[in-house]
Amino acid sequence: MSSMADFERSLRGAAPHALVDVVRDHLAACHGATATTLLLADFGLAVLQPVGGTEQRAGSVPLHSSAAGRVFGSQEPRAEPPRDGEVVHHLPVTVRGERLGVLAVRLPVDRSTDAAAGELAHVAEVLGHEMVVAERDTDLYQLARRASRLTLAAEMQWQLLSGRAFSQPEYEIGAHLEPAYAVHGDNFDWSSDSAGLTVAVTDGMGEGVPASLLTTLTVNALRNARRAGVDIADQAALADQAVWAQYRGSLYVSTLLMSFDLDSGRAYAVDAGSPQLWRRRGRSVDRIALDAQFPLGMFEESDYRMQEIDLLPGDRLLVVSDGVYQAVSPDSEPYAPKALVRGIQATSLLPAASAPGALLRELAAYRRTETPDDALVMCLDWHGREGSESRG
Questions:
Q1: How many angstroms separate the CA atoms of 297 and 237, rounded?
Q2: Where are the alpha helices (DSSP H) in 88-207?
Q3: Which of 91, 114, 184, 195 is such that its CA lies 20 to 30 A from the CA of 22?
Q4: How far apart are CA 286 and CA 323, in angstroms?
Q5: Sheet harboring 98-108: ordered strands across?
Q6: Global model pTM greater than 0.90
Q7: Which residues contact 18 (CB under 8 A, 6 or more apart)?
Q8: Is 152-382 in CATH node 3.40.50.410?
Q9: Distance (Å, rounded) from C-alpha 190 to C-alpha 293?
Q10: Would you kindly state where each structural domain of the chain is located, as residue ranges?
Q11: What is the pLDDT of residues 142-160, one digit of tens each?
Q12: Is the separation of the CB atoms in 47 and 60 below 8 Å?
């Protein structure tokens, strides 16, 4: 292949399972690469695992204590010191803020130039975008994300998610769930357009598949209402009717809905249950008190009201489920509010994509036991739009 354009055409035309092979052949031909490996982050954000083959776990590396893991966290390409005449380059594979993994490429020392490093970074970016499309038609990349088997309920929940991170000039958003391989009722969802961002955090009653089915119904009812063009109060009302029609109040869903207007810089919320909203502004961390309204599906035809959230550029918003703020230590000390505030402060320098996982690790260390209930953290860093009312 004579040019990057040729490579990109070849990658777009490749079979969904053959993307890494096309990248490997291109880098070997153009840069003398002796090895190329795509490492993807597992569902628990604990390890990076290679794509392809049957020995994926044997080739996994720790996400928090490896050269590839440091690149995943920093999102900056890095080259390891030369060894045996070769240099290993690690490149982040990220799509619109969604951190997928790391591309590891081994080059001869004499081919490891700044120009080569720049092309490798572009290859990793293109690969990420093509992989997101290819995932519709192959399980190859899903398999690489599994350090162990998912429960059926967890499988349903992860397939329901819109993603784990997303970024635009006006905001960055990230979220994570634990226990990653056995989650059942907690879920998060978001959608962006030119005018704003809509976010939903849900927590369905129960355990296992019944809880996942309940959340699946709710998330899809909220999406259906959102795509009809109604505001978040009406989205809540329509989803409430859908859940009531199915369960008649025997099961219901705690939900927090938020919408963000990019032109005005204003934000609104509907609190229909247990997820809590916290804000870090400067050095202070406070819980945002919202008007508590009925969970979705608890009663027939509930009415819901929006309220405005005090939001300024530079604010960090965090939504935590009851599995976070109701957690206790082995000495029965509650995690919220004191330890939760400390955890939010301790993760304040991390980007929105990394903060939820780090906060859940803080929680795990605090409770020193396996998470018995779903625990969800969603983080949104608000930058605002230049010229919006919130910027004056």
A1: 9
A2: 114-134, 140-144, 152-160
A3: 114
A4: 19
A5: 61-62, 47-50, 35-41, 98-108, 86-95, 78-79
A6: yes
A7: none
A8: no
A9: 21
A10: 4-145, 152-382
A11: 999 999 999 999 999 999 9
A12: yes
